[in-house]
Design a protein that fits this description.
The protein has about 625 residues and is of the alpha/beta class. The strands form 3 sheets. It has a 7-stranded parallel beta sheet, with helices on both faces. Strands 13-12-11-14-15-17-16 form a 7-stranded mixed beta sheet, sandwiched between helices. The protein has a 3-stranded antiparallel beta sheet with strand order 4-8-7. Helix 18 links the parallel strand 14 and strand 15. Helix 14 runs antiparallel to helix 15, helix 16 runs antiparallel to helix 19 and helix 19 packs antiparallel against helix 20. The relative contact order is 0.09. Bound molecules: fructose -6-phosphate. The site of fructose -6-phosphate has 14 residues, from loops.
């Protein structure tokens, strides 16, 4: 069958001259997924009654695609009656019924909501005896062939550059087989399994050659953490240590990615190397910081020759060939972002400062998605705002209950049991303790979750006391979208927005600080930010909102690029220590962090090293040497 695709591989343009794989960049995962779902729907509809064979992936990347396919089925009568599916992979030594199996994943997100004939679903069986694995794999390959091969293959990509579970070292001729998972892949799966030790070591995966035989391949990647591996796969040489690079040899492969995942591609990272640029201020800043780093010189020492030799002659041209003018301009831009007065400096000229001088006492509302992001991400700035007499409020958006380990709860139960006399409470506690010790707690059990939430709340109260913030100014929102007791959260609803709107109305803030960090492992930060943005939309016409500025901080996982920073708050060694101590009040998140993402340093260390790195970057650009810097970007709504 000839497959007509929505994305035709285009002729190479100047812009894509570093690229070896066709790619389409969308603003968000949702818009990208919709485009891919549309292509799949057209394929299915065009096939009339012929069979269409889809190769399917699991993981976070295809979730919004599956949601859209389900919507197309429900709202636009897309039928899957003639669709055959083959999943890429399955963990090995895992039962289908296990909630972490890819079998469960596929039913949860897709198969249970569409009209696919269950006998047309094929997923590698992770529960067969090792001696039968080889035959099973041969059979899987034969089955794919018996249906005429895969028409349309969906892929995600791992941090190791794996496609399917073809880890580094996989051969391009590899077929379906049992493999050992790379340690990085196991680390990434740790939060799904409730700890690294519980992640399977092996998986059954389609091979590189199985994937390459698909007639059409679309790889999905969203978010900043995929940007490096995407750049490598698209622009570097083919190498078995980067399995996704094999896709360069496929004739009909498209990477569908969002803006964040595309950020490292040459055409976006250093666009001046591939095209004529419209030199906006923001692009000028990006280019000059890049140049300074590239030639290892502070801004004020960059010469005309540096600009020319590094491909920035067109930038020089707009400033009449003067490196000096560009350097001074850039230096001033950055210098004006640095301030020790994050709430504005009272009674002073604020024309070159990031914040307004008036009112000198501001109402500040810090939104913290989890109960510790406030101190991890902006603990130094937070302390300054209090010291500088602003009225500071913190809104903890979610309870953060699922990130408290059972061991931690047992500790608190033991303390409580030593003085509680009420028989009924003691019995409840004792039964909870027994369940926790046997790891047989149903994680949606409300009582256990409430205790976990209470532990996190008490940690916030302790950190607040330490920073001398009144308890009345700490708001525990417990937004309902989060309260599933599981990693997978509910869709946010009007109730979440109403809670948020109500709080903003009460505080009438001059400044809102919110987590603009979109890379947390479970997407909670992204949902929390959307809720704030939607609330701001609702409140846009309120008179006090005209005086409200919104600053975005980044959480534990990443920092703003220097050129994007609009307020840089330096911290002294003493302030760094104060911040560390505030973070350490969050004891349930210390030593054994349950959901760490891809970085296994403790939060306080991660925050400290990141703030030091920002300070070093400023220093290398020619600014004073600070101990650490917290950075913010303004959001205009
Ligand atoms: C899943 C699979 C993997 C994932 C990859 C990305 O079936 O084969 O290759 O696609 O690990 O995972 P996410 O999408 O969770 O980042």
């Amino acid at each position: 069958m000839i497959i007509k695709t929505a994305f035709q591989v285009p002729g190479r343009t100047e812009q894509s001259r570093y690229e070896k794989i066709h790619n389409k960049v969308f603003n968000t995962a949702e818009t990208g997924s919709k485009a891919v779902a549309k292509e799949i729907a057209e394929l299915i509809r065009a096939s009339k009654n012929n069979k269409i064979v889809l190769g399917l992936a699991t993981g976070s990347s295809p979730i919004s695609l599956y949601k859209e396919l389900v919507r197309l089925h429900k709202d636009e009568s897309l039928s899957f009656k003639n669709v055959i599916t083959f999943n890429l992979d399955e963990y090995y030594n895992i039962k289908k019924e296990n909630s972490q199996s890819y079998h469960s994943f596929m039913h949860q997100y897709l198969f249970d909501h569409i009209d696919i004939d269950k006998k047309n679903i094929f997923i590698p069986n992770g529960d067969i005896d090792e001696k039968n694995v080889e035959n099973f794999c041969l059979d899987y390959e034969k089955k794919i062939q018996s249906y005429g091969g895969i028409d349309f293959q969906i892929l995600g990509i791992g941090r190791t550059s794996h496609i399917g579970f073809n880890e580094p070292g996989s051969h391009e001729n590899s077929a379906t087989r049992l493999i050992s998972l790379d340690p990085i892949t196991r680390e990434d799966a740790a939060s799904d399994f409730g700890g690294l030790g519980l992640v399977p070591n092996k998986a059954i995966t389609m091979g590189i050659s199985t994937i390459m035989q698909a007639k059409r391949i679309v790889l999905l990647a969203w978010g900043h953490k995929k940007s490096k591996v995407i750049q490598h796969s698209i622009e570097q040489e083919i190498e078995s240590n980067y399995p996704a690079t094999f896709l360069q040899n496929h004739k009909n492969c498209t990477f569908v990615i969002d803006a964040e995942a595309s950020a490292e591609l040459t055409k976006f990272k250093t666009p001046w190397l591939v095209k004529d640029c419209d030199w906006t201020d923001s692009l000028k800043k990006k280019a000059i910081t890049w140049l300074s780093k590239k030639v290892s010189k502070p801004i004020l020492k960059l010469t005309t020759r540096d600009y020319n030799e590094m491909g920035l002659s067109s930038l020089l041209a707009i400033s009449e060939g003067s490196a000096y003018d560009l350097n001074i301009w850039m230096f001033n831009q950055l210098q004006h972002t640095i301030t020790g007065w994050p709430g504005g400096k009272p009674n002073s000229d604020d024309s070159k400062r990031p914040e307004r001088a008036k009112p000198s006492k501001k109402r500040v509302l810090i939104f913290s998605p989890h109960p510790d992001d406030d101190v991890i991400s902006m603990g130094g700035t937070f302390a300054r705002l209090i010291e500088q007499n602003h009225e500071v409020h913190v809104a903890y958006q979610t309870s953060g209950n699922i990130a408290v380990s059972d061991d931690e709860v047992i500790k608190y139960i033991e303390v409580s049991e030593s003085f509680i006399t009420n028989k009924e409470i003691l019995e409840n506690l004792s039964s909870l303790r027994t369940n926790l010790s046997k790891s047989s707690l149903d994680h949606s059990e409300k009582y256990g979750l409430d205790i976990k939430g209470a532990i996190r709340k008490s940690e916030c109260l302790a950190a607040g006391r330490f920073l001398k913030l009144s308890e009345n100014n700490l708001h525990f929102m417990n937004l309902p979208f989060y309260e599933t007791g599981k990693i997978i959260k509910n869709e946010p609803t009007k109730v979440d927005i109403d809670h948020t709107v109500k709080l903003i109305k009460e505080v009438k803030p001059h400044q809102i600080f919110a987590a603009g960090d979109l890379a947390d492992p479970h997407g909670t930060h992204r949902i929390c930010l959307d809720i704030i943005f939607n609330s701001l939309k609702t409140l846009k016409t309120e008179s006090y909102m005209k005086d409200c500025w919104v600053w975005l901080y980044r959480g534990a996982w990443q920092e703003w690029n220097i050129e994007d920073i609009e307020m840089a708050v330096p911290l002294s060694p003493g302030q760094v220590l104060q911040k560390r101590n505030a973070i350490l009040f969050h004891q349930s998140q210390k030593d054994k962090v349950m959901f760490q993402g891809e970085d296994n340093r403790e939060f306080w260390l991660r925050a400290e090293e990141r703030n030091q790195k920002t300070a070093k970057s400023f220093n290398k650009l020619g600014f004073a040497e600070y101990q650490a810097i917290e950075a913010f970007k303004r959001y205009h709504f």
